[in-house]
Write a structure and sequence with these properties.
4 strands, two-stranded antiparallel sheet, alpha+beta
C-alpha cells in the first residue's frame, strides 16, 4: 500500500516597514483586482502590516507569498534605485524560499500491512 503526504509550506518573513509600504502601494496601484484586495481591509497585506506595526509575526501561505511577487512585477517610474533594489532582493528571497520549500512539500511513503 502506498500513500503520499502533501504539505503546504507556511512562511514567516521579517521585512522592513519601508518594504511593506512599497508592497501596500504597489498592491493598491496594481491592475489585477486580486492584487488590489491584498492591501484592503481583510487582505493579507493589510494583516501583515498590522502584525509588523505590533512587532508580531505573520504566517503567509505559499499562495500569498507568490501573490506578492505578482504585486511587484512592475515598478512605477517614480521608484528610487534603493527601492528598486529592495524589491529585487525581496523577489530573489521569495524565489529561494520556494526552491527550498519544494523538498518539504511532498513525501512518498510505503506502508506495509500485516
Amino acid at each position: 500500500m502506498k500513500a503520499t503526504i502533501f504539505a503546504e509550506p507556511r512562511f514567516e518573513l521579517n521585512i522592513s516597514t519601508g518594504l511593506m509600504s512599497l508592497l501596500l502601494r504597489l498592491s493598491k496601484e496594481h491592475y489585477d483586482s486580486t492584487c488590489q484586495r491584498a492591501s484592503m481591509h481583510g487582505g493579507f497585506l493589510y494583516g501583515w502590516n498590522n502584525a509588523l506595526e505590533m512587532d508580531s509575526t505573520y504566517d503567509l501561505s505559499a499562495r500569498q507569498l507568490d501573490l506578492t511577487t505578482k504585486i511587484i512585477e512592475r515598478f512605477p517610474d517614480d521608484l528610487s534605485e534603493p527601492q528598486r533594489k529592495e524589491l529585487n532582493e525581496y523577489r530573489e528571497l521569495v524565489h529561494k524560499l520556494f526552491k527550498e520549500s519544494k523538498q518539504f512539500s511532498q513525501y512518498n511513503i510505503e506502508v506495509k500491512t500485516t
